[in-house]
Amino acid sequence: MQIWLLSAGVQCFQWLAEPPNQTITESGKNVSISWRYILENGEKPISSKIYIDGEKRITIASMNILKKKYLLIEEYDGAAKVISENSTVTLESFFIKKNLADKEYCIHMAISVDLATKEFSKEYRSCTKLSVYVYPRIVYHSPKIIKPNGSTVELKCNATGDPEPSITWTKVGNNSVLTNSSLMTVNITQQAFGEYCCISANKYANDTACIEIGDPPLLLNTTTINYTMINNSVTIICLATGIPIPTIEWTDLSGNIIHQSKDDNYTIPFKHCKNETLIYYCRARSTTGKTPKKKISVHEYPNFDLEVANNQGSDLGQEQLDVIEAQAQAKNTKRATEWGLKKFFKWSEKRQISVDLKTIAPKELNEVLRKFYAEVKTEKGQPLTPSALTGIRAAIHRHLTSAPLRQRLHVC
C-alpha cells in the first residue's frame, strides 16, 4: 500500500484494496484483477494505464481523463475489458493463455494536487503476478491389452500440464505405487491380470486413465462325444484357459443357458429312460472376450448288463464292452477317480516318468498329461474309445482340483 503525505497527518492518496502479490488461475479461464483507491484534498488523476510488465511492457488500457474511463489499446491482442466505477478499477481478462503467465499485471496512476499555493504530483503503482496453471491431461495411453499368458507387455502413458505433471502407475485393488515412470513393463500371469491406472498429477489437479490386461479365453482339446447308460449321470468336460479364469457357459440345443461356473466340467443327471442323443454347447467367456461355441454330444444307451443276460453268447460291440468295463471298474465317483489315476500311474511307470502331483509344476504336468492322453491304451493294448478317455480325464481332473491338492490347472 502506497501513501503520499502532502503534509504531516494529511493523506492525499491511498489504495483501499489491491490484489494479492500472486493471482492464480487456470489456463483458458477468465480472471478479474481489481484495484480500489481514494482521492482527497482536491486530488485528481492526470494519467493512468494498465499494463503487463515483463521483458517487454505491454499496455492494455489507458484512462481517458475527461471521461474517467479506461480504453483498450488497439495494439493489445488479448481479450479483455476494463471497468472503472467509483474509484474502483477492474481488469477482466478472458480465456487467459499460458503465454501470459508469470508476468506482473500492473496499474499506474499519476496524481496531481492543485492547492492555492502550489501544485504537486506523484505516481503510484500496484501489481500482481499472474500464475496460469494447466490441468494435467493424459494425451496417450496404451489401449486394452489382450496377450497370451506368459507374455511381456509395456504400458505407456504420456501427459501434459503446467507445472509438469508426475506420472505414477497403480493396480486397481492395490493402493501401492508400482512405478513413477511413463513406461511400465508387466509380465502377464494370473496374478498380474487386472486394471492398471496411469495417474498424471501436479499440485493443482490430476488425470487418470486405466488399461485392462488379460489373456483371452481359449478352448482346449475336449472330447466332443460322450456315452452314458440310461438313468445314469454323465460328466461333460470343456477345458479352457485364459486370464482371468474364464467362466464356462453351457447351453442346450435351443440356446438356453443351463449352467455357468468356473469349473471345467458339468454333470448332467439323466432321469428319463430313452435311447437318444443329446446335444450341448460350451463356451468360455471373461472380461477379455469369449470363444465360439463348441458342440458336445451325449449318447444314452440301454443297460447292457440286461442285454447280456438276455442274449448270452451274442457278440457285443466295442461301445457295449466299454460301458460294461466302466460299470465294473467305476461303481461310484471315488472308484472312478481311483481307476483313472491307476491308469495314469501305470502308464507313467511303464514310460519311466516320475510324477509327484503335489510338487510338479503346472507346465510340466500339462506336457505329461498331454502325452498320457495321446498314448493310453486298454489292457489289451487297444486305443480307448471316447467315453473311456473322457472318464479318465474326468478322474484325473477331479483328483487335481479336489482336496488336498486343490490345484487350478488347465490340462490338455
From TrEMBL:
InterPro entries: Ig-like_dom, Ig-like_dom_sf, Ig-like_fold, Ig_sub, Ig_sub2, MAVS. It comes from the Eukaryota. Residues 136-214, 216-297 form the Ig-like domain. SMART domains: IG (SM00409), IGc2 (SM00408). It holds the Pfam family Ig_3. This is Ig-like domain-containing protein.
